[in-house]
Amino acid sequence: MDTGGAYNPRTVEEVFRDFKGRRAGMIKALTSDVHEFYRLCDPEKENLCLYGHPNENWEVNLPAEEVPPELPEPVLGINFARDGMQEKDWLSLVAVHSDAWLLAVAFFFGARFGFDKADRKRLFNMVNELPTIFEVVAGTAKKQSKDKSSVSNNSSNRSKSNSKRGSESRAKYLKAEEPEEEEEEEGVEEEDEDEQGETQCGACGESYAADEFWICCDLCEMWFHGKCVKITPARAEHIKQYKCPSCSNKRARS
């Protein structure tokens, strides 16, 4: 099993960065790359594991041969349950085990490099700010984000969305705002930035940043980083109705 190169994070920030990278890779496997992940989890093969790497890639492979392994190992045999369960339930099960593995790896590094009580608490709080993989896969992360945004009134939400969408594709995707703005609009911009900061990506759970490309699903109306759903600004120009991976999978299964 390729562990993504010799990499030993030693500080709280480095361990959290490692956690985020592995988490992003596993979320890709269970959402945007789910068809490839499903294909690789062949029940006819030996015990397989889902690995997330710090570089945001994922891998389905046999467990490490070393005993004890260099890092904690993910759950074994995810492929054996694939055909015996509903796909949604199977993906949720893999997601729960993936969350447990990510925490095991993060706190393995913490123990290895002597994190004290304050460091362990800070690491957990940083991790806890992100939705779990299970919440992303099951869609509860989207619901939590929607509940947050519903506190603001609909008109302010609409103005926020409009301010973030390009003029040519107003209902489809979001571009980073241009820096040249009139001074008289500064007060409005500050309000918009506050509201945009509350918007979370439906895939990775991270907050909106003005220098990133985002796209909105026309069905569930959730926002996503373009990189999380593999959509570029150029590609978005030609999409009449964008459907996120979750909505696409639901329609395919129905």
Automatic annotation (TrEMBL):
Entry's transmembrane regions: 90-115
UniProt feature, compositional bias: Basic and acidic residues: 165-177
GO biological process assignments: chromatin organization; regulation of DNA-templated transcription
Residues annotated as domain PHD-type: 198-250
GO MF entry, a single one: histone binding
Location (main, coarse): nucleus
Alphabetically ordered keywords of this record: Chromatin regulator, Membrane, Metal-binding, Nucleus, Transcription, Transcription regulation, Transmembrane, Transmembrane helix, Zinc, Zinc-finger
Subcellular location: Nucleus
Pfam family, one: PHD
UniProt biased composition (Acidic residues): 178-196
InterPro entries xrefs: Alfin (IPR045104), Alfin_N (IPR021998), PHD_AL_plant (IPR044104), Zinc_finger_PHD-type_CS (IPR019786), Znf_FYVE_PHD (IPR011011), Znf_PHD (IPR001965), Znf_PHD-finger (IPR019787), Znf_RING/FYVE/PHD (IPR013083)
Listed SUPFAM superfamilies: FYVE/PHD zinc finger
Protein's UniProt keywords contain Zinc: yes
Segments of this protein annotated with the region Disordered: 145-196
GO cellular component: nucleus
Compositionally biased spans, kind Low complexity: 150-160
Subunit structure: Interacts with H3K4me3 and to a lesser extent with H3K4me2.
Family: Belongs to the Alfin family.
Function comment: Histone-binding component that specifically recognizes H3 tails trimethylated on 'Lys-4' (H3K4me3), which mark transcription start sites of virtually all active genes.
Domain notes: The PHD-type zinc finger mediates the binding to H3K4me3.
Name under which the protein is recorded: PHD finger protein ALFIN-LIKE
Annotated organism of origin: Arabis alpina (Alpine rock-cress)
